[in-house]
Amino acid sequence: MNGFEVTALQRTGLLGRMLRRKRYENSFAEVRNLLASKPLKDVSAADVVNILSEYEVSRDVATPHLLTLYETVLKYYVQDHHLSIAERDDLNHLRYVLDLDDESAQQAEVAILRTVFREALRVALDDEHLTDEEKHKLEQMAENFTLAEDVREAIYKEEVSVVIQEAWRQAISDRRLTPDEEARLNRMSENLGANVAHDQESQQVVERFRLLARVDAGELPVIDTAIHLQRGEVCHAAFGCRLHEMRSVTKRYNYSGPMARIRIMKGLSWRFGSIGINRVTSEEMRQLDTGTVYITNKRLLFNGTNKNVAIPFKRVIHFTVYQDGIRIEKDSGRDQLFLGEGDLELVSGILEAALKNAKR
Question: Among 3.40.50.80, 2.60.120.320, 2.30.29.30, 3.30.565.10, what is the CATH number of 235-247+284-359?
Answer without folding.
Answer: 2.30.29.30
